[in-house]
Amino acid sequence: MSDRKGADVSAFWPEPLKVAQLMKMVTAERANWEAVLARVPRERLTEPGLPGGWSVKDVLAHMTWAMKEGIGVMRAKRLVGSDLWKLDDDQRNAIVVEQSRARLLEAILADYESTSADYMKELAALTDDQLNDPVLWPKMPPDWRPWRIIYDPHHYGQHALDLREWLDRSRS
Questions:
Q1: Distances (CA, A) of 166 to 50, 60, 124, 162
Q2: Is 167 left (phi over 0), alpha (psi -120 to 50) or beta?
Q3: Does the structure show a pLDDT above 80 at 12?
Q4: What is d(CA 167, CA 37) in angstroms, rounded to the nearest whole number?
Q5: CATH number of the domain to which 35 belongs
Q6: pTM of whole model > 0.70?
Q7: Total number of domains constituting the chain
Q8: CA 81 – CA 152 distance, rounded (Å)
């Protein structure tokens, strides 16, 4: 959800996108992310070293926040969510991570798992038309695609790349 409009990806994904296609895409991207995540020893999950000085715990909290925002949009079938969306990506992400830093790792991990399941459940409940037609979502700009509001196709991949690079640097 790095940008709410997502015009940059329309050339790479079919329009209209079917729910089954999006679910497959999300599942594959998440599996790729989680394969890299599984390489991180538990004792290193709170160690800073990722871009922005983040830890893996911070990334998980950030991803969970984004999924929860997507869940809210899917449930309401309209653009709803945190006022943090009014900020640029860096400001928003810094606040989300800062708010989660005091939370225990176990709580972040459990929240990530349960939110991931809830996200997929809400995504499965959408129709193909709801995924693609902005007219079906009150107050959505007509040139936006609902599926791009609820899913950023680059999100898991970018964090997986950052995590791989961090792991590779720490092996040297």
A1: 6, 15, 34, 6
A2: alpha
A3: no
A4: 10
A5: 1.20.120.450
A6: yes
A7: 1
A8: 16
